[in-house]
Amino acid sequence: MLMTKTNIYLLLFALTVSLYTLSSCNKKNNVTVTVHKEDVTAKKMLQGIWINDDDETPAFRVKGDTIYYPDSTATPAYFQIFHDTLAIAGGNIAKYKILKQAWHLFVFKNQAGDEVKLYKSDDPSYKSFFEKTNYAASINQGKLIKRDSVVVYGNDHYHWYIQVNPTSYKVYKPNYNDEGVEVDNVYYDNIIHVSLFNGASQLFSRDFHKEAFSGQIPQQTLKQSILSDIVYKGAGTDGFHFLADICIPDSPSSYQITIIISFSGKVKLKV
Predict the structure, then answer these.
(1) CA-CA distances (angstroms) from residue 163 to 51, 145, 166, 229, 260?
(2) Of the CATH numbers 2.10.10.90, 3.40.50.11060, 2.40.128.510, 2.30.110.10, which one belongs to the domain with range 137-270?
(3) pTM metric for this prediction
(4) Would you kindly state where each structural domain of the chain is located, as residue ranges?
């Protein structure tokens, strides 16, 4: 089970409320609510590895109440089947109309309205596509990165130091796979430390999380982004300039924020 019981109960409530039908009447408001129960048989029929009929590539594997994808960055997702609807819970609850279902056949409409035809495979070699222990990817080398240098400005010697620390903090980015199914790609974020010294005196020392740039980046963009790197750019009359790169993984979208550290150690951010 990949979700907590609380999250599952909330999901069940959201799905059942959205799929209810009205009929007959009751004593209070002349309306009764009939809730579609989950189709347990349909869920059993969906167990196994499913192959795209068009190109013979694995689409997903179903085990229990979880769908697994062959993409190493796509997180497994909880699902349910109600009547003719497949509901998958990721960052959003995505629903797909089921056109045909049998023990070895599954046909549905993706979110673009295209018909997707899958067949179940008993070939054990396909299992290797889903045997992953890590469903998150890093945007850099996935290891500690250290940089430092000495800068002469005026009559003083300054020393800056940057350390990129990979973390286990996950960033979820919704995407669509080859079958047109919405999946959550998962990436690791970074924490980046910046220090600045004037001789032996420390002027500045701070760990930067991506939330430090919430005033410069729209919240929805920041939610899907990671703090990729911070690099030194130079010194001027206003202080030392560093450039922070906040980007959405596997996308050309990114923000570059200038971090200005003054000679007194005060910090200012500028897009």
Answers:
(1) 44, 6, 10, 9, 17
(2) 2.40.128.510
(3) 0.69
(4) 5-130, 137-270
CA-based nearest residue to 258, from 204, 249, 248, 235: 235
Res 25: pLDDT: 38
**pLDDT attached to residue 22:** 36
Place of tokens 């290891």: 143
Report whether CATH 1.10.10 matches the domain 5-130.
no
- Give the residue from 136, 2, 130 showing the smallest Cα distance to 64: 2
Contact 188, 136 (CB under 8 A): yes
Residues of the chain with pLDDT under 70: 1-36, 132-143
pLDDT of residue 185: 86
Angle in degrees, CA 55, 56, 57, rounded to 5? 95
